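YM 10:42: Dihydrolipoyl dehydrogenase family protein sequence, as discussed on the call
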Amino acid sequence: MDTTTYDVIVIGAGPVGENAADRIVQGGLSVAIVERELVGGECSYWACMPTKALLRSGAALRAARQVPGAREAVTGDLDAASVLRRRDSFASNWQDDGQVAWLNEVGVPLYRGHGRISGARAVEVTGADGTTTTLTARHAVVVATGSGALVPDIEGLRAAAPWTSRDAVAASEVPGRLAIIGGGVVASEMATAFAELGSSVTMLARDGVLHLAEPFVGERVAESLRDKGVTVRVGAEAAAVKRDGGGTVTITLTSGEQVEADDLLVAIGRTPNTQDIGLDTVGLTPGAWLTVDDTMRVEGIGDGWLYAAGDVNRRVLLTHQGKYQARAVGDVIVARAKGGAVDDGRWGRHAATADERAVPQVVFTDPEIASVGLTAAAAENAGLRVRVVDYDLAATAGSALHAEGYQGHARMVVDEDRKVIVGFTLVGPDVAEMLHAATIAVVGEVPLDRLWHAVPAFPTVSEVWLRLLEAYGR
Ligand SMILES: Cc1cc2nc3c(=O)[nH]c(=O)nc-3n(C[C@H](O)[C@H](O)[C@H](O)COP(=O)(O)OP(=O)(O)OC[C@H]3O[C@@H](n4cnc5c(N)ncnc54)[C@H](O)[C@@H]3O)c2cc1C
Ligand SMILES: NC(=O)c1ccc[n+]([C@@H]2O[C@H](COP(=O)([O-])OP(=O)(O)OC[C@H]3O[C@@H](n4cnc5c(N)ncnc54)[C@H](O)[C@@H]3O)[C@@H](O)[C@H]2O)c1
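YM 10:58: structure's back
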């Protein structure tokens, strides 16, 4: 058995592990990274990038069809084979050479294999050929092992070989009939993509469509899915699943009704990849999410050598937010190792403060949903004195130019005591790129009377900022 020592060991080379390692090297420490599958993680091969590639062609086609002049030039339907090929290229054909080359470039040695903590500051790596290498860390171990799809205990479900998000994202064919259990982000995006690619989709949205967002979000996405021919069944819950010899899947609902499909996607959330990473060797529970403080240090570990960033700590299951945590964790490990000052107060360099109240997210459905911070309901639940201002995005000059029949909506949630925006939601075509202005307003806690002087250019959809402030009373 080979034993090698580094300042820091990172387990998991997804976007978060890669970024943490990079930051640690930039800080002047040595670091090794352990990866059991593909360097780049879920996001690169089975999540963010390939899903957005699956959705982009449909969005481009819709956009062209909404503008006279361009509309006449578009004569056919989506070419599914071509969409899938483009998806393949955005998943780098499930090869990680490019990302491995990047690790080499930044000076991070890669250990391929399954990583397990084997005691304080020790990680055992088991390679595909069964050989083991023990890595020891002088300062810290960072767990960035991410999450996997959660499959519920529904009678017959596992035996029916359902799709998880990985299967949907990497599908080589478009199923004739696709049923989806779930009404969240994966379910909504995949229902959009497969409906546009030609599947007949049934969505079993037990708790509603995107039900944690502002209420108008789910309403608009559900309406648009129905317009695409998707059967959206809010409140429907699967009780049993069976796949027959011919391959047809039958889902029996708790109401007794049955839904038939060729494939069934389960998209009801995630489970942490912590079942087999040696948590028991340091007194933690295998299979549990890792609870961390604002510097991503795992709670309950002796002298604090263990950190967890990204999906695995459950703070926010988004790539950009995980990478933000990775920057904080990389920098704080370096600071602590070198005896430097630790800036872990609110909005400090070593704290992922934005995770609490300023998380931006774009859901690439039709219409797109772009949101940051708290919904009105969440702000009220947090005890804030809230004022909600709504505006019809279609009433801006920019939106009329952008597309014929543009439909959209904006909501600004104001903390009345501080006169700052704490939440912002946009629904409409191409609103994704408008989100960052709202993120800056929320994170910067920009007072509304100063925001008045941030004048949106004419004629853009961003003029909604002016209209919202006028509606507020400026
Ligand atoms: C379908 C889908 C679409 C998504 N779309 C978006 C989006 O558009 N935008 C967005 O921001 N987020 C999106 N997400 C969420 C995003 O994918 C995750 O938040 C992100 O991948 C988390 O990064 P991570 O590095 O924490 O984990 P992961 O990306 O899961 O990477 C963890 C890595 O650790 C490795 N690993 C695990 N255990 C071990 C072990 N014991 N030893 C060695 N290696 C190990 C894994 O192989 C993996 O490579 C999407 C998620 C899904 C499922
Ligand atoms: N564009 C993006 O940012 C993007 C895209 C896809 C995924 N993601 C991330 O990936 C994560 C996983 O997405 P997801 O859609 O799997 O989870 P989710 O948490 O977004 O949605 C899960 C849905 O399943 C429902 N549900 C839970 N248990 C159920 C059950 N037993 N039966 C039926 N329905 C049930 C919930 O009510 C919810 O609507 C999300 O946290 C999200 O942040 C992000």
